[in-house]
Design a protein that fits this description.
By secondary structure, the chain is of the alpha+beta class. The chain contains 10 helices and 14 strands. The chain is globular. 30% of the residues lie in helices and 15% in strands. The mean pLDDT is 97.
């Protein structure tokens, strides 16, 4: 553990005390449990997901996929066309989607919320290459990305052990008490938006994380400030689950009813080879008001990137090029071409 990162508080002794769980969540803005999820089940999931990741070419051929030895020459991340091609194969796995419904997770979320809950249809896997630190998920609040309501809970869990140097999640305890969405700005990292916690007088920007083990689970609401730590390993791929849960009857943003965007898939693509019908379109049985996605957060971030690119900022120029490559016919790509032409960059 580095001097700059303090340990997460472990809440296992309160697992059967819903009142205490809610008190801690209200006070600290997160709950961390050691081995909430069965490590053996997580090991099986890791083998299946990593085997698929190796098949798409992101792990060194001939190595044990469980060891996650990355082919660093294949580095890519969310937003890259190359990432979507591989991520889509992982996203089709029935076991991956089913893990968000494991009773040890849903049962704990229900204790915390005190109401019947629903896992969001949009499940997310995070796959992070080593030596790619400038693309690390930046400091942010989840609401800008997933929206719906402030009480939605994120459950983050590594698929396998995840020591500090592999790049687990870190949170700022108590940061949710700002009780509002903070100003986010352009960032190259995953999600494309960053909040400068150091500039917020209400927040004490002290980061907490841990050397995660398989089965460990971190749960927090939509306003808690958090980030991923960089993957500083030489050759290890980091794999984690990043799922969201809400109380039945609360609002959900429309895009959270669709597959995760970087997969490039529709539900029929996802379901094509599933043997179990029970989880297909399961959310349709619940009456959750659906609200439109608010694009103002990402629009603001892109507008900032445009201005930065015009001034020669390399990360913003990178985003302009990525936008043209990934969505060549979009209005943003048209704007990006104009910007790059204006600064004489191909």
């Amino acid at each position: 553990m580095t001097d700059e990162i303090k340990p997460l508080r472990i809440s296992n002794e309160a697992m059967d005390d819903p009142t205490e769980l809610r008190r801690r969540m209200a006070d600290e803005g997160y709950l961390f449990f050691k081995r909430l999820q069965n490590p053996d089940k997580m090991a099986e999931l890791r083998r299946e997901m990593m085997t698929t990741i190796q098949r798409v070419g992101w792990l060194v051929a001939g190595t044990d996929p469980v060891d996650a030895i990355a082919d660093v020459s294949q580095q890519c991340t969310e937003g890259d066309t190359e990432y979507s091609a591989g991520y889509g194969e992982v996203y089709k796995l029935q076991a991956f989607h089913g893990s968000a419904h494991w009773p040890e997770v849903t049962g704990m979320v229900e204790k915390i919320m005190g109401r019947p809950i629903m896992p969001h249809p949009q499940k997310i896997a995070r796959i992070w290459f080593p030596k790619y630190t400038e693309h690390t998920t930046p400091t942010h609040q989840d609401f800008v990305h997933f929206q719906g309501n402030f009480e939605t809970l994120t459950c983050w869990a590594p698929v396998g052990d995840c020591p500090i140097e592999l790049g687990g999640l870190a949170v700022i305890p108590g940061s949710h008490k700002v009780n509002r969405v903070l100003e986010h700005h352009f960032s190259l990292g995953a999600g494309g938006l960053v909040v400068n916690a150091e500039d917020e007088p209400e927040i004490d920007p002290v980061w907490h994380s841990t050397n995660y083990e398989a089965g460990d689970t971190l749960i927090f609401p939509a306003l808690t400030i958090h980030k991923a730590l960089p993957n500083y390993t030489e050759d290890k791929l980091r794999l984690s689950l990043d799922n969201r849960y809400q109380a039945v009857g609360d609002t959900i943003a429309e895009h959270m009813l669709e597959p995760h965007g970087p997969s490039g898939l529709g539900w029929e693509d996802v379901y094509a080879n599933w043997s179990d019908e029970s989880l297909k379109y399961y959310w349709r049985q619940y009456d959750n008001p659906v609200v439109p996605r608010d694009m103002s957060y990402t629009d603001k971030g892109f507008a900032e990137a445009v201005e930065l690119a015009r001034s020669g900022n390399e990360q913003a120029i990178y985003l302009m090029r990525r936008t043209i490559k990934s969505t060549p016919d979009s209005p943003r790509a048209e704007k990006a071409r104009t910007v790059l032409a204006g600064v004489g960059v191909a």
